[in-house]
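TOKENISE THE FOLD
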Amino acid sequence: MPRPDRSMQQGAQQVTPQQMNQAPPVQSAPRPMPQQSTQTPMSSGGVREDIRALNSSILLITQKIKYLVRNEKILGRNLVVLNKKIRTLEEKIIAMPSVSATGGGASGPEVDLLKQKVSMLEAQVEDLITRAALKEELKELKYIINSINPLEFATLTQVRELIDKRMEEKLGKK
């Protein structure tokens, strides 16, 4: 007697192509409610529910295995392609003649010019380093400025104006 196809029973979900790239959701098997009837604990209804729950769990596990197998095949193909690319790159590197053997690359004057530019840039960097203030120096300057508070001091022109006013007041009183 042929077996009926039970691949899509109740509780099993059909997977869309968008969901194939995602891991299937984890579902717990439905647990049957305990029956308070006069039947024995091994009644046929409770066993049927347990079998259905186990069957749906098995279906979920088989779907997950199918996803794993499919992803394994995809990864295997990707590895084959990447290995071919690496092999071709290695062959190109081996086949390339060295720069010194063929005399290719930059010429002597170009190399000298580049060396001069590098040395000039190094000198500029060293100059910037020597002229830059260190963190401790900046903290010290900040402390001095905050303690003196230069906004309370008068400018030279303001002092001269004050002196001139005082002199006029003294001359005006005499």
In short: The two ends are 139 Å apart (CA to CA). Residues 108-173 form one domain.
